[in-house]
Amino acid sequence: MVLATNLGFPRIGPDRELKKTVEKFWSGKASRQELLDTAAAIRRDNWLMQKELGLDHVPCGDFSLYDHMLDTLAMLGAVPKRYGWSGDQVDLDTYFAMARGSAKAPAMEMTKWFDTNYHYIVPEFERGMTFHLASTKLVDEYNEAKSLGIRTRPVLLGPVSFLHLGKSIGGGVKPLSLLDSLLEVYIEVLRRLADAGAGWVQIDEPCLVLDLPEEVRAAFNKTYSRLAASAKIKILLTSYFDELRENLDLTFRLPVAAVHLDLVRAPQQLEKALAAIPQDKILSLGVVDGRNVWRSDLDAILRVIRMATEKLGKERVFIAPSCSLLHSPVDLDLETGLDDELRSWMAFAKQKVHEIVILARAVNEGEHAVAEELKANREAHATRRTSKRIHNPAVKERVTRITPEMFDRPAPFAIRRKAQETALGLPPFPTTTIGSFPQTKEIRAARADFNKGKSTAGQYKATLRTEIEKAIRFQEEIGLDVLVHGESERSDMVEYFGEQLEGFAFTRNGWVQSYGSRCVRPPVIFGDVSRPEPMTVAWSKYAQSLTRRPVKGMLTGPVTILQWSFVRDDQPRKTTCEQIALAILDEVLDLEAAGIKVIQIDEPAIREGLPLRRDRWNDYLTWAVNCFRLSAAGAKSETQIHTHMCYSEFNDIIAAIGRMDADVISIESSRSKMELLAAFKEYQYPNDIGPGVYDIHSPRVPTVEEMEELLRRALQVIAPEQLWVNPDCGLKTRSWEEVRPALKHMVDAARRIRM
């Protein structure tokens, strides 16, 4: 019999219960016990639901209060010295201090989890660091599920990926040199799991899909030889997000019981895998897309499964999602606002688990056992293929008329800079923010009342105008040079635009975790994209009317809208991105015509979309950069185009960032203490740069001296005439009590370096 399995389930709860309780705990409005009770309830409901749907392997340990990498740090006792940890068991205060910072120590760095919009805490390795079992979370949760009558499959992040995804502090230690000490903790955890009755453990080694140096490849042999020899438990080794390629044979040689392959992102690897897999191993087929919301084509997947079972036999095949369902919304059943047709094309995490069970039953019992489910699936796919709402001939024709000349600004940067200096008259080291200001309870309440019909459009607009004026007056008061309107009208930087573009649909409960308690609700791009009318012009024009200082028009770039949406899978992503770029271009031209002299087109996700294998980088970077340039190229020379990027490693794509040709780029750099700027020095970045001096993901307010120090570090790399002063990212998630002093300190720091 093939087994129906899952690699992980969303941890936020169907109504974001975890987010709400964690944030109450941080603010002192919920006790530690209330937080733990909420977490336990989410875990229980997830386990029971998956068991009742018919899964054979239900995961545990996939739940986290903040981040699975942070959980691994806690398990290993890998706490940086600056947190003053006692060295025994990692407590909640230390756990959250690493994630968010504290009054005594800044937070640990965050970056994107491979090519997703999920952020993980980056491990820090210091000289003299040792490891011990400092959190028994995984064993505790296995026993917790066991007490409910559910035998689960524990999930661990693999030791090699843990080390490879971390960073050495001060270059004092090579991460792989810590492997021996690290493995002792893993061995202890596996032994405890085996003693508790676990038959299987899932060890995630996603780094196997990367281009790896030889010493990392060698570490896999050492690691799994020791784990297999020391712990009597079956190991499922998982990779996802791409293909194994040259690491396929390496993986199959490891002494593990089963290997998982992502056959959604890399279906081409199945044939080679079936030819290479040893007779003593099980193959886990990742055939249900764990990263999108579209219903699976069950007939096509069954052909893939039968190819495997004919070669291996049913007893050597698991059916699974491509990756953890962490990246999917929780339950489509909650989406009562979607029309029936669109809803019939979709599946969220719960429905994807059901698809896996249907597939297993079809193989084990015959298709007649699930005939109705298969029929409904075929009908939904047929409807989607032929639906007229997906295709817009005018949009498709406009894309065919894109020419290379449409990617270029009217003049090179040197000429544009002079024109912008004349038009804007800014001081040296100009100060600005990234765009958003705190989304207060009052703003959210006004939006909710309007959406529920409790207030009129006029009343809602009046509230927003009041908030915009407050934001403008505050910025003038503290002395910012380039202002923003604060984005009080926007619930999300992608959702806001998607709501006004054709080809998008929206959910009410389609939330996914971005980091910690931060959840996003990605739009669904189901059809051709176009802009029926201006989206931001009225608000930007109003804000500019309130002040003589320049106010930025704030747009989200085409690549980021693409990356942070659930994207249609029936045409190339490049084509969809070009459609979005043309819509943003229309908005840029309308903003410019309305008198807006500075326009920011945010592209924080451009690095995120980079393929994991380097031999595919050039193709992606070519069309992604061209889409950004297409969205901005129509602007006049005197119109200053900004872009913003955050929480990604930019060093290896710095030349592509240069080719974007934005007049000003702002980037995250405070958590890394300006480490990111090394790439800008080596490349000699030609345009202006605003390296962030204020970590907005932490409640901590940095001092003037700290910001000044970061700016002086930046000046070691950046010419004075290039340097802008700004926070790391937008301020929507912070409170005004934090934002006011932090921005005042930032302006004071800029004034100091002007002296």
What does this structure look like?
The protein is an alpha/beta fold and 755 residues long. Helix content is 43%, strand content 12%. It has 27 helices and 22 strands. The strands form 6 sheets. It has an 8-stranded parallel β-sheet with strand order 1-12-11-10-9-8-6-2. A 5-stranded parallel β-sheet has the order 17-19-20-21-22. A 3-stranded mixed β-sheet has the order 13-16-18. The protein starts with a strand and ends with a helix. The relative contact order is 0.09.
Describe the largest sheet: 8 strands, parallel
**What's the β-strand tally?**
22
| Strands in their spatial order, largest beta sheet | 1-12-11-10-9-8-6-2
Proportion in helices: 40-55%
Q: What best-fitting shape do the alpha-carbon axes yield?
A: globular
Our Rg estimate from Cα atoms comes to: 26 Å
Instruction: State the separation between the terminal residues, measured CA to CA.
Output: 75 Å
Instruction: Give the low-pLDDT segments.
Output: none
Strand content: 5-15%
The total count of helices amounts to: 27
Mean pLDDT across residues? 95
Helix and strand content put the structural class at alpha/beta
